[in-house]
Design goal:
binds flavin-adenine dinucleotide, 4-stranded antiparallel sheet, 12 helices, Uridine Diphospho-n-acetylenolpyruvylglucosamine Reductase, domain 2, 28% helix, 12 strands, single chain
């Protein structure tokens, strides 16, 4: 470790003031502290926001859900309203990390977590995300777990969050507050593809604080779920994953929300799959046909070519689990 200052704030104004002066927010600390130990991150000032009133899961006026940024992953997963209305969120959370981590880690921290690319976490390796201009060791290195969608010459790292895949599928909104006031960012615009600036990972401005994630209301019944495929069944990040939500009325699919994880530089929404499903009757043939589009645009690397087929199968299987087979 290296020397840094630590301050605990008790209200949002105090937090924003410290954030504006360059302080780095810390919530559960489950990932930031690791990165500091490895000297991948070297913030000079930590601002502990854990005492701020950003807790609670509430139903919005429009019938959606608002999950406070400081709600613990375990708490959100177990919340009755989350479980009953958006099981895809509960499942994504429960398939993440470990029980101990989920008891400590927060929703805001989860969507802000950084890639698990081993070259990013190895300060002796070239990594444009960690050190702009230093190259991408993963491109020509061992890239089995890396992204096949949304990559650039500068970066091929995946976004590791599971619940972010559910938020992308459900078209959530991230509420933030900053020195210039509050604003809302559609989830699709919150996490940034690497392009030529992989060090810029999300749309937050300096000092902005996430206050909540809001999930819009959907027509009922909405059936949903999350499937995660990984090298071992527990305590492991996704090789591929699929978040699926379907609204079927009168035997016809009226709404389809599908996104994939483990494959993109950001959680990967699958509009071509969704388009294929809407207006159709659920059937095994439909799931298979729609899932063929899951890897549209994929650019696999030397060691992760298998993800193209695995992704299609993951999406097909999760459509079958959520939508049933006829
Ligand atoms: C061994 C291990 C396995 C894991 N496995 C998985 C997994 O399978 N799936 C998965 O999804 N995740 C996994 N994780 C990641 C875990 O979910 C994250 O560590 C956790 O969600 C981060 O939350 P936190 O509150 O501890 O964040 P912190 O470590 O406190 O902060 C993380 C980042 O978020 C920023 N931040 C936090 N809160 C706010 C806010 N309100 N506004 C603005 N910025 C904020 C911080 O500045 C920091 O940059 C794993 C982690 C570990 C260590």
């Amino acid at each position: 470790m290296y020397p840094f200052t630590f301050t605990k704030v008790s209200d949002t104004a105090e937090a924003l003031n410290a954030g504006h002066r360059g302080g780095r927010y810390i919530a559960g600390g489950t990932t930031l502290v690791d990165l500091m130990r490895e000297t991948v991150e070297r913030p000079e000032t930590l601002v502990d926001i854990s005492a701020l009133p950003l807790r609670g899961v509430t139903v919005t006026e429009r019938g959606g859900l608002r999950i406070g940024a400081l709600v613990r992953m375990a708490e959100a997963a177990a919340h009755a309203k989350v479980r009953t209305t958006y099981p895809v969120i509960s499942e994504a959370l429960e398939l993440s990390a470990s029980a101990q981590l989920r008891n400590m880690a927060t929703i805001g921290g989860n969507i802000m977590q950084r890639t698990r690319c081993t070259y990013f976490r190895d300060v002796t390796a070239g990594c444009n995300k960690r050190e702009p201009g230093s190259g991408c060791a993963a491109r020509d290195g061992f890239n089995r777990t890396h992204a096949i969608l949304g990559t650039s010459d500068a970066c091929v790292a995946t976004h590791p969050s599971d619940v972010a895949v559910a938020f992308a599928a459900l078209q959530a909104t991230v509420h933030v507050v900053g020195p210039d006031g509050a604003r809302s960012i559609p989830f699709a615009d919150f996490l940034l593809r690497p392009g030529s600036t992989p060090e810029r990972e999300q749309a937050l401005q300096k000092g902005e604080l996430i206050t909540a994630v809001e999930i819009p209301a959907f027509p009922r019944p909405l059936k949903s779920g999350y499937l995660k495929v990984r090298d071992r069944q527990s305590y492991e990040f996704a090789l591929t994953s699929a978040a699926v939500a379907l609204h079927v009325r009168g035997g016809v699919i009226r709404e389809a929300k599908v996104a994939a994880g483990g494959v993109g530089t950001v959680p990967w929404k699958l509009p071509a799959v969704e388009k294929h499903l809407i207006g159709e009757r659920p059937s095994q043939a439909l799931w298979a046909e729609a899932a063929k589009h899951a890897a549209d645009g994929a650019r696999p690397l030397e060691h992760n070519r298998f993800k193209v087929e695995l992704l299609k199968r993951t999406v097909e299987r999760q459509l079958r689990i959520v939508g049933g087979t006829k």
